[in-house]
């Protein structure tokens, strides 16, 4: 955009936790940002309110019946919003020529195709949807490079790492920048101190009650198993072009340090802040400038202490499964992600227990086929195979 026209934003997953936080940042800077498109799965009531407040050019719902209802609503409110439905229209708005920036905040594999469409259209992509990158890392990063897209991380850890890296790291690579390693911090989730013998009776409500962050249900369960940290490890490998061995995972229960970069001279740079996703969202939206995000200033007297620990293998088997999958490479991360999505959904539906999540993923990984993942077809095929296998396991398992 030129200096005085607002940046046109497409929000994929507008009704979710990241989507609504993004709209809150936009609300604070109406002169700077304009909502071009909002998309959602099925949350009709919320997207109605969002259309009234933000006047998007397009609104896309996955479901045709709900889209029809939204259509009647925008007509009744005399809004100019064009209502579309179906997954192909997610790709359409994400790659639309009028769009400058795409917030990729759909949860899970469903976010892959529209995020890839944005990359192929050379957009500025604010990436929250880590599953897309985990599935298709090589293909996605190639598309970004080939089509001149800009990729900025929204995940708080990756945004922190990005802030702690020198500007030229993209061209020079981590090693030439004098970097020793990356320290990925994680809170350890709600079961950091829970007795291991009680893990099998953990309920979805307990798993979704994260101590520091208010997030969607899928990522909340991922945080409880620490699969989230595992997916983030894979995400970091692709974003910053490093190996799993160059990443150290550290437990930091207060979630004040969002991650760190360790340099060869002994310096460690950390990015800190209250656990509020509006900080990384505002950072990426305004980059390289800085804007107000509505986040409470960090009060050091109130925090009083920051602590660190090692994640125990017995407590967090999913973390190990993820780093093994990344080391194996090929379609392993895609199969890991698919099995995890099936397992988490089954857990949230009360079909399997908490400890069965990692069992199901492990079994799926050993029983489905390793292959290269250099084409999109191969990635989608791995995703499908692993999903089908994991779904069969769900049917066989008893709580
Ligand atoms: P959420 O469940 O709150 O929201 C998900 C959004 O995606 C909703 O708008 C929903 O309508 C849409 N959606 C769901 N399934 C869809 C489908 N099949 N097709 C199209 N749209 C669909 O999730 P969230 O917590 O906002 O997380 C979104 C993404 O951001 C995830 O990949 C998550 O890992 C990542 N992330 C979230 C946080 C956080 O604090 N919430 C932090 C870091 C990363
Ligand atoms: Mg994170």
Give a quick precis of the structure:
The protein has 399 residues and is α/β, with parallel strands linked by helices.
Small molecules in complex? nicotinamide-adenine-dinucleotide, magnesium ion
How many β-strand stretches? 11
Strand content: 5-15%
Side by side, the strands of the main sheet go: 4-3-2-1-5-6-7
Using only C-alpha atoms, the radius of gyration works out to 21 Å
- Structural class call reads alpha/beta
Shape verdict: globular
**CATH structural class of the domain at 7-153:** Alpha Beta
Name the CATH homologous superfamily of the domain at 7-153: NAD(P)-binding Rossmann-like Domain
Range of helix content: 40-55%
- Which architecture of the domain at 7-153 per CATH? 3-Layer(aba) Sandwich
Oligomer: single chain
Average pLDDT confidence is 97
Provide a count of the helices: 17
Low-confidence runs of at least 5 consecutive residues: none
State the end-to-end CA separation: 55 Å
CATH topology term of the domain at 7-153: Rossmann fold
3D architecture notes:
This protein has a domain at 7-153: Rossmann fold. The protein starts with 6 loop residues before the first strand and ends with a helix. A 7-stranded parallel sheet has the order 4-3-2-1-5-6-7, sandwiched between helices. A 4-stranded mixed sheet has the order 9-8-10-11, with helices on one face. It is an alpha/beta fold and 399 residues long. Helix 6 (130-146) runs antiparallel to helix 15 and helix 16 crosses helix 17 (376-396). Strand 1 (7-12), helix 1 and strand 2 form a beta-alpha-beta unit. The protein has helices at residues 17-27, 44-54, 64-76, 87-94, 112-120, 130-146, 156-164, 169-172, 204-208, 217-225, 227-240, 278-286, 300-303, 317-328, 332-348, 356-367, 376-396; strands at 7-12, 33-40, 58-61, 82-85, 101-104, 124-127, 150-153, 179-186, 247-251, 257-263, 268-272. The chain binds nicotinamide-adenine-dinucleotide and magnesium ion. Magnesium ion is lined by residues 155-157, 232. Pfam families: DXP_redisom_C, DXP_reductoisom, DXPR_C. Its cofactor is Mg(2+); Mn(2+).
